[in-house]
């Protein structure tokens, strides 16, 4: 008699499936780039989805040169404020922060995030930049502390989201001149990315709460005459086992996990959100007021979730050299009007 075998239910690739510590995703890896110096990331708020009609320009595609319908996600990307610069050095333990310089004056909403230093002015900024310039031979990389401006988006909050973004490309001296120039200023998404470029999307997924093994892992429901439960796993393991092994589907947290989706193409970068906002606004979001990004496909998280965009860690080998040609953006009402 052949041995009974049942297929694996659910993926073990993302264990443990615990809740993310915060709603702002953390970038654990920054790729190397040739062009630059440039910021390797940006952030925006997920507005919603629609579809576009575009000319397929993917090399080798069976629909090359034809119009195709493509689902897209609209990311509301108001300009980000460069609040501080950090210089890092590398030793036997890895990266360590040498020093940091904060911009002056600090915007009014920053007291919701940090406690601003007292009596901090332009003379302190210049002293800090001179201190970094004197130690450039020790500096390995530069990163900036960038903050979102939710007042310019349609999210119901005033508190900025503060995050660290690495500066890539060029020499250390060129990177220093770049961060000196942008410190205390705002930078827009078109200064970081361009149309047709591939990016990685890092975000926190939609939370589902505490769920059982049927919904969480996709196990089969048992027959109705079973002794204890119908929506549970049939067995927790062998009789002689002293514990339940990790591969057994168990109930627990579902959703609200950090996920990275690779190689999402930027189809369009616009300055007027009305070009991509459907009639009546996006459900659960509203109207996109200013700069926006059209990304192909879907991205993790619900509406209003902070989405972090990063230069691709493993870009595709075949990339079209020209921006995509969009012939139509659907502005059909999502409210059934």
The second-level CATH architecture of the largest domain is Beta Barrel
In what range is the share of β-strand residues? 25-35%
CATH topology term of the largest domain:
Elongation Factor Tu (Ef-tu), domain 3
In total, how many beta strands?
Answer: 15
Assembly type of the shown chains?
single chain
Would you mind describing this structure in some detail?
With 337 residues, the chain is mainly beta. It folds into two domains: 38-77 and 189-212 and 251-337, Elongation Factor Tu (Ef-tu), domain 3 (Beta Barrel); 79-187, Ribosomal Protein L3, Chain: B, domain 2. Helices cover 9% and strands 31% of the residues. It has helices spanning 122-134, 172-182, 213-217; strands spanning 38-39, 41-55, 67-76, 80-91, 94-102, 141-147, 162-168, 186-187, 198-204, 209-211, 252-254, 258-270, 292-296, 306-310, 325-329. Strands 1, 4, 5, 6, 7 and 8 form a six-stranded antiparallel β-sheet that branches. It has a six-stranded antiparallel β-barrel with strand order 2-3-13-12-9-14. The chain has a two-stranded antiparallel ribbon with strand order 10-11. The longest helix has 13 residues, at 122-134. The radius of gyration is 24 Å and the shape is globular. The protein starts with 37 loop residues before the first strand and ends in an 8-residue tail after the last strand. 30% of the residues are buried. The mean pLDDT is 92.
How would you concisely characterize the structure shown here?
The protein has about 325 residues and is mainly β. The protein has three helices and 15 strands.
């Amino acid at each position: 008699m052949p041995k009974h075998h049942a297929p694996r239910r659910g993926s073990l690739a993302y264990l443990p499936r615990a809740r993310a510590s915060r709603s702002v995703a953390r970038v654990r890896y920054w790729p190397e780039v040739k062009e630059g110096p440039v910021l390797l990331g940006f952030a925006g708020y997920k507005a919603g989805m629609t579809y576009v009609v575009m000319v397929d320009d993917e090399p080798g595609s069976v629909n090359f040169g034809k119009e195709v319908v493509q689902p897209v996600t609209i990311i509301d990307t108001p300009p980000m404020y460069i609040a501080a610069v950090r210089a890092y050095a590398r030793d036997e333990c890895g990266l360590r922060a040498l020093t940091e310089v904060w911009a002056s004056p600090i915007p009014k909403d920053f007291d919701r995030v940090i406690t601003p230093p007292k009596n901090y002015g332009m003379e302190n900024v210049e002293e800090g930049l001179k201190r970094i310039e004197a130690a450039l031979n020790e500096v390995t990389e530069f990163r900036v502390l960038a903050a979102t401006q939710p007042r310019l988006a349609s999210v119901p909050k005033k508190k900025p989201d503060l995050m660290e973004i690495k500066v890539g490309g060029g020499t250390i001296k060129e990177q220093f001149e770049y961060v000196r120039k942008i410190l205390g200023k705002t930078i827009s998404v078109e200064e970081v990315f361009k149309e047709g470029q591939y990016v990685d999307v890092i975000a926190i997924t939609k939370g589902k709460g505490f769920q059982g093994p049927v919904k969480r892992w996709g196990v089969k429901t048992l027959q109705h005459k079973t002794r204890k439960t119908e929506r549970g796993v049939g067995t927790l393991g062998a009789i002689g086992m002293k514990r339940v092994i990790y591969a057994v589907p168990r109930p627990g947290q579902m959703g609200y996990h950090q996920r990275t989706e690779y190689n999402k193409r930027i189809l369009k970068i616009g300055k007027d959100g009305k070009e991509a906002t459907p009639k009546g606004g996006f459900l659960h979001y509203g109207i996109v007021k200013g700069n926006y990004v059209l990304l192909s496909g879907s991205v993790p998280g619900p509406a209003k979730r902070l989405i972090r965009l990063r230069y691709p860690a493993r870009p595709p080998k075949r990339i079209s050299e020209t921006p995509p040609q969009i012939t139509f953006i659907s502005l059909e009402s999502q409210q059934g009007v």
